Amino acid sequence: MPSNEQMTRFAGRDGGPPAEENVGLARILAGAKRHALLFADYFAQYAKVRVSYRGDFFVSLATSFAATIFALGFVIVLFKKVPQIGGWRFEEVLFLYGFSLIPYGFFNIISLNLYEFGNNYIIEGKFDRVLLRPVSSLFQVLFETFRIESVQEIATGTFCMVYASHQLGIPWTPARFAMLFFFGACASIIYVSVFLMLTTVSFWFEDRIGVHPPVWNMMAFGRYPLTIYSPVVQFFLCWIIPFGLASFYPSVRLLGRTVSPAYAPMVPVVAAVFLTVAISLWNLGTRHYSSTGS
């Protein structure tokens, strides 16, 4: 008869997953749990420090909220002058605008260090400290600081969607909620990936400001129906800087409208591709990075 050791080996080979796969899965789960706990610690500590300066926090919150309301006010004033834009009613544009604010808010919460990476980490040499820690350098850069006041953008976007849905008579079924969370996550990934790619430029070209500002302004184009733009602009906002793809086509699907071509199924594909490219560029940049020596 075969020994217990032989039976275990044969069972792992033929009757169940190999031991190596079990070990690999356990490591992945352990790593995910570790990073989740680290994220919770990072956020809790930063939130305590941020809220401890209450005056500064509430001024920042009020300023951020005022900017959001001002931009939303432009949409309201626009539709006071015209009944439709490219066949889209006010409630439908408001729904699209609200959806775009939700991933934009999540992106803004974690994107502060991406804007300041060239100045704070490369030029001032703080990236040396990041590389010395036994944690992913990208994880540290993304989650060391947060723009907590951008939670108001998520709240405002949710309110806009709820109000528009009520006016349009759109029922919120479990399937529609699932689509909202799924497409919202994909759009957030697209936003982060685009700016992460721009951030990696700092590994090769040191610049305190970086190339983020002009691209950041392009986000506003994704808050309106893509069909109102020329084909060239539509192509640019779908496949080059895909802010329009991230917000317009998911909104079309959630609204139950039809447009041609229907690119909603491409949103998760583009999110996965852009994230892969962004992480690859980050890893390439970290290998290219040379310490400031200070």
Structural features:
294 residues, mainly alpha, two-stranded antiparallel sheet, 73% helix, globular, disordered N terminus
Secondary structure layout:
Elements: H1 4-15, H2 19-52, H3 54-81, E1 84-85, E2 88-89, H4 90-110, H5 112-115, H6 117-123, H7 127-132, H8 137-143, H9 151-168, H10 174-199, H11 212-217, H12 231-240, H13 243-255, H14 266-288
Antiparallel strand pairs: 1-2
Helix pairs in contact: 3-4, 4-9, 4-10, 4-13, 10-13, 10-14, 12-13
Tell me what portion of residues adopts beta-strand conformation.
Answer: under 5%
Count of alpha and pi helical runs: 14
Helix content: over 70%
Number of strands: 2
Main structural class: mainly alpha
Kindly provide the radius of gyration, computed on alpha-carbon positions and rounded to a whole number of angstroms: 23 Å
Main-sheet strand order equals: 1-2
The stretches of 5 or more residues where confidence is low (pLDDT under 50) are 1-14
Identify the overall geometry. Answer: globular
Arithmetic mean of pLDDT: 88
Kindly report how far apart the N and C termini lie. 67 Å
Helix and strand element order? HHHEEHHHHHHHHHHH
Polypeptide structure, described:
With 294 residues, the chain is mainly α. It has one domain (53-288). Helices cover 73% and strands 1% of the residues. It is built from 14 helices and two strands; from the N terminus they run H-H-H-E-E-H-H-H-H-H-H-H-H-H-H-H. The chain has a two-stranded antiparallel sheet with strand order 1-2. A hairpin with a 2-residue loop joins strand 1 (84-85) and strand 2. Helix 4 (90-110) packs antiparallel against helix 9 (151-168) and helix 4 crosses helix 10 (174-199). The longest helix has 34 residues, at 19-52. The termini are far apart. 29% of the residues are buried.
